[in-house]
Specification:
Distance between the termini: 49 Å
Strand content: 15-25%
Shape: globular
Strand order of the largest sheet: 1-2-3-4-5-6-7-8
Radius of gyration: 18 Å
Number of helices: 12
Order of helices and strands: HEHEHEHEHHEHEHHEHEHH
Largest sheet: 8 strands, parallel, barrel
């Protein structure tokens, strides 16, 4: 199987999905449907710290790579997510070069960074510590989320920070920061997306986006437009998604 890092380096799309419902059965079902990765959303989801190891195990049993989107770019949040066993970290609301460098530093063991070293679920509380501690710095998939128009001021420098594997646009927050909340076809919004795309291509950094509503045509379009790290919907949105059936007509 081609690894996520290899796909990103060679320009191949990697598709994952998003979890907000804290349930290991949901995690295993999602992971078993061919997604490269499944992200636990600690910013807006309902996960508690003690549930993370079981849900991460369920994702791995299902055949996907467990990611965590931390609540904020903070050393405590990042350390707890990694210690729980996450193989990928997504940080929200990146707007500056300094924030990006901090993320790399806080998610890396010394000498590359300042992550606290200790026994945890990630290394089976010491049983696999030597192997884990020697490989996680290079194996970890680090993704930044671009969610505010202010990031545009430093975007080329942000995308050039060493250690970042991909960037992903958060469309709702980005559109909100432009006073265009949810207006994803607005010309101004599309123009900003293109500026991010141009900067990513210049920096040779894979760029992705979160497709909120399950829409295969939009997925095809985003891939055609050069997006390679794509979150496809969320567990809750897919449960809420209406089918094309006309229920009222059927029951008459």
């Amino acid at each position: 199987m081609t690894s996520i890092k290899e796909k990103l380096k060679t320009g191949k799309p990697t598709i994952g999905t998003w979890m907000q419902i804290p349930n290991s059965n949901v995690a295993e079902i999602l992971a078993s449907n061919g997604y490269d990765w499944v992200t636990l959303d600690l910013e807006h989801g309902a996960f508690s710290l003690n549930l993370l190891p079981d849900i991460i195990r369920a994702i791995e049993i299902g055949g996907s790579v467990p990611f965590i989107r931390v609540a904020e770019n903070h050393p405590k949040d990042i350390k707890q997510a990694l210690d729980a066993g996450a193989k990928g970290i997504i940080v929200p609301m990146i707007e500056t070069v300094e924030q990006t460098r901090d993320f790399v530093k806080w998610s890396s063991y010394p000498p590359m960074g300042t992550r606290g070293v200790g026994f945890s679920n990630a290394n089976l509380f010491g049983k696999h510590f030597d192997t884990y501690s020697k490989t996680i710095n290079s194996d970890l998939i680090r993704v930044i989320q671009i969610e505010n128009i202010r990031a545009l001021d430093q975007i080329e420098s942000i995308f050039s920070v060493d250690g970042i594997d991909a960037a992903m646009i958060g469309p709702y927050d980005l559109s909100g920061s432009m006073n265009l909340t949810g207006q994803f076809t607005h010309p101004e919004f599309l123009a900003v997306i293109q500026k991010f795309q141009n900067a990513a291509e210049k920096a040779k950094l894979p760029l992705g986006i979160h497709i909120i509503n399950p829409d295969e045509e939009q997925l095809k379009t985003e891939i055609k437009n050069g997006k390679t790290f794509i979150a496809y919907s969320t567990d809750a949105v897919m449960l809420n998604h209406k089918s094309n059936l006309n229920w009222e007509k059927l029951i008459k």
